[in-house]
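Thread: Newbie trying to understand structure tokens

Hi all, I'm a second-year student working on a class project, and my supervisor (Dr. K.) asked me to get a predicted structure for one chain before our next meeting. I've only ever worked with sequences, so writing a 3D structure as a token string is new to me. If someone could post the tokens and maybe explain what I'm looking at, I'd be very grateful. Here's the chain:
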Amino acid sequence: MPSPATCDTPRGTLLHMRGVAVVAILTLSLGIGATTTMFSVVHALLLRQPPFANAETGPQSLKEH
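---
Reply by user tm_fold:
Sure, no problem. This is what the structure looks like when written as tokens:
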């Protein structure tokens, strides 16, 4: 158990328990990175309009029936 003298500030607590601090920082960074990646994929595939004309009509066949 850490003594109160070394843990009187948040910085002292993090320096004393480096393993916990590293795990917390890695967890936050992975969560932020995953959220950013998912938003980018959803935005690129679902929210943004395709970069060609008449995108709302969809693909059409070249053959005429």
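A couple of things are worth pointing out once you decode it. The chain has a mean pLDDT of 78. Residues 18-47 form the longest helix (30 residues). Feel free to ask follow-ups in this thread.
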